[in-house]
Amino acid sequence: MLKESLPAGPRSWKQGDNRMSTYYVLKVPEGCRVLRLYHYRSHSTAMASPNLAFVPASLPPAAVEVEALQRFVSHSQRLLVMTGAGISTESGIPDYRSEGVGLYARTDRRPIQHAEFVRSASARQRYWARNFVGWTQFSSHQPNAAHLALRNWEKLGKLHWLVTQNVDALHTKAGSQRMTELHGCTHRVLCLGCGEQTPRSELQKHFEALNPTWRAEAHGMAPDGDVFLTDEQVRNFRVPACSRCGGILKPDVTFFGDTVSREKVDFVHRRLAEADSMLVAGSSLQVYSGYRFALAAHEKKLPIVIINIGPTRSDHFASMKVNSRCGELLPLIVPR
């Protein structure tokens, strides 16, 4: 647990450049809260060089945008940050929706649905074979400058809470602790029968033991760590059951078609209720599980800034929108 005293009282910020002249009164709740930290530990803190293969083309941020974002962050006392796949593309992980370079733009492939995974043994075999081949590369991805910038904001006391829609563990590798993995994390495996959690690295060893002679050549990487394989390639791949109860093993992530637990949603709403501003970084907010928090922030009349290359679902009520790379812009901001 972490107990932190937070300042109380009204605060105000006036945005004065030519592009915006909105006056906000930011009300900060009184008192302090006890926050539970659920943190996947990693010893890796190396930063990868920007990999722009899956990043849409964009212009560098204008000086006026950098100055406006600096003022926004400086005047925020309890900043809630929500990140999406666009913050990890510079680490070499593709996303789904980016124009021209996202999975939907490059292929006709779609992510597995929750109901299909639970219902079909062949679907699970196909998913795990692809995930097994892609795991070594996917798990080796390192945080980029944007992840490290947010880690530094937290260390300096500027970031009140981080909510990530990503399942890649890059925020954890960067050292962030005040965070919620909204959709879970691929570095954990969950038994649907008994609820046992195990590290994904341990499951890799079981796969290797069950499939000592199985080989498959990958053809392209998907956003959540699996690769493209043919049905013929996965036909003989063997998938282990839970060693404790014999149940179905699934990544501890929210698949498409599933819902985020009410407990987790309520927890994030409580963190949002404590916040006085919101920053969205690298998310189109097309998925409702993330969009609901931007909508709630808007209803609370919190100032919202969005950094994302391309349109988002919340552009129309954002205080400011910047079409720039997160790894290029966030490190320019000095919290104070």
Brief synopsis:
The chain is an alpha/beta fold.
Strand order within the widest beta sheet: 7-6-5-11-12-13
The biggest beta sheet reads:
6 strands, parallel
Rg estimate, integer Å = 21 Å
Number of helices in the DSSP assignment: 11
Runs with pLDDT <50, length 5+? Answer: 1-45
Distance between the termini: 26 Å
| Helical content (DSSP H or I, runs of 4+) | 25-40%
The oligomeric state of the chains shown is: single chain
Beta content comes to 15-25%
Order of helices and strands: EEEEHEHHHHEHEEEHHEHEHEEH
**What is the count of β-strands?**
13
Shape assignment: globular
Mean pLDDT: 83
Structural category is alpha/beta
Structure description:
The structure is a single chain. Helix 9 packs parallel to helix 10 (288-299). It contains 11 helices and 13 strands. The protein is globular, with a radius of gyration of 21 Å. The longest helix is centred in the middle third of the chain and has 19 residues, at 121-139. The model is unreliable at 1-45 (pLDDT under 50). It is α/β, with parallel strands linked by helices. Strand 2 (9-14) and strand 3 (23-28) form a beta hairpin. The strands form 4 sheets. The chain has a 6-stranded parallel sheet with strand order 7-6-5-11-12-13, sandwiched between helices. The protein has a 3-stranded antiparallel sheet with strand order 9-8-10.
